[in-house]
TrEMBL record:
It holds the Pfam family Far-17a_AIG1. The keyword Membrane applies. Belongs to the AIG1 family. Keywords: Membrane, Transmembrane, Transmembrane helix. The chain crosses the membrane at residues 42-67, 88-108, 128-147, 159-185, 197-217. One of its GO terms (cellular component) is membrane. PANTHER family: ANDROGEN-INDUCED GENE 1 PROTEIN, ANDROGEN-INDUCED PROTEIN 1-RELATED. It is found in: Endomembrane system. The keyword Transmembrane applies. This is Androgen-induced gene 1 protein isoform X3. It catalyses: 12-hexadecanoyloxy-octadecanoate + H2O = 12-hydroxyoctadecanoate + hexadecanoate + H(+); 9-hexadecanoyloxy-octadecanoate + H2O = 9-hydroxy-octadecanoate + hexadecanoate + H(+); 9-(9Z-hexadecenoyloxy)-octadecanoate + H2O = (9Z)-hexadecenoate + 9-hydroxy-octadecanoate + H(+); 12-(9Z-hexadecenoyloxy)-octadecanoate + H2O = 12-hydroxyoctadecanoate + (9Z)-hexadecenoate + H(+). It is a multi-pass membrane protein. InterPro entries: ADTRP_AIG1.
Amino acid sequence: MALVPCQVLRVAILLSYCSILCNYKAIEMPSHQTYGGSWKFLTFIDLVIQAVFFGICVLTDLSTLLTRDSGNQEQERQLRKLISLRDWTLAVLAFPVGVFVVAVFWTIYAYDREMIYPKLLDNFIPGWLNHGMHTTVLPFILIEMRTSHHQYPSRSSGLAAICTFSVAYILWVCWIHHVTGMWVYPFLEHIGSGARIIFFGSTTILMNFLYLLGEVLNSYIWDTQRNAVASKESRDHEARTINSPGGCPLPEWKVTERCSH
């Protein structure tokens, strides 16, 4: 029964991302009409990543329910592949990119919002949509990590993948500047070439750090939970042994009966 709430939760999160994407794309902003469209913004790319990830989660849940007790080895093999894809997507893209967008956006916003999210955008993007793009990503991904264990890839392959994504996006931003003569983010206009290089290098390092943070957090959550379960089982066994005549474990219902008195 514990699986059902997780399924419902993932469907709700997926629908919320679909709603955010639809509302965002419906906004008629000048920047959407220029070279690269919405795809030049990491926020939009992140929203697509999150929507795809939770779509994979929902598909995995449905496949798990459909293949349960089926005994079909081919279906089980396909399910394992789907689970591996889900875990890889969370480890390499959904967690590091999602946390990066939230952390960097609100850090720069707090320092000077005109550098990242000019006040003019308030005329186009309502407050709830801004938080849907730049805030709720973090609690959603943490909820997913807490409700399901995810198998991380090898550290070398994971770091290589997130580095590839980071460098690819940086090259994409530079290409847009080469074509249009304008930077995607306003603050890049106000710093020199050396500072841009340092900034781009720092973002790549930060992405790698967030990948490692996700790996550690995933292990901590599930190692702690496994230890708690093992500790509870040990205490229950000890209670049945102590309360039984001759030191033999009592049935579980007897332990409950004695505790109730």
